[in-house]
Amino acid sequence: MQMLTDMPNNTVCTVKWMLGLPQETDQELREWEICQGSEIRVIQNNGDGLLIIGAGSHRIALGADTACHIRV
Fold it and tell me: What whole-number distance in Å separates Cα of residue 22 and Cα of residue 9?
């Protein structure tokens, strides 16, 4: 299991767990259909503190502080 922040661009992975997220962030991710067992694609991860991920037809920008709480 690795942190989402460690995944390179164009990697498709399955969310294993999301722990330690603020309740508001957790709720927003679930609205975008991102939860345990979801398949996501890392669209852009340049190591600059911002990740762009895709889940279904959604594209979401996550800060590294949020993405480090997601294990894939």
Answer: 26
- The model's pLDDT over 57-69, given as tens digits with 9 standing for 90+, comes to 899 999 988 999 9
Please report where in the chains the tokens 């800060």 appear, as a residue: 63
Whole-angstrom CA distances from 27 to 2, 11, 24, 34, 39 are: 22, 24, 5, 9, 17
In whole angstroms, give the CA distance from residue 72 to residue 69: 10
Q: What are the backbone angles phi and psi of residue 45, rounded to the nearest 5°?
A: -145, 95
Q: What is the pTM of this model?
A: 0.85
Q: Which of 59, 53, 27, 26 is nearest to 40 (CA)?
A: 53
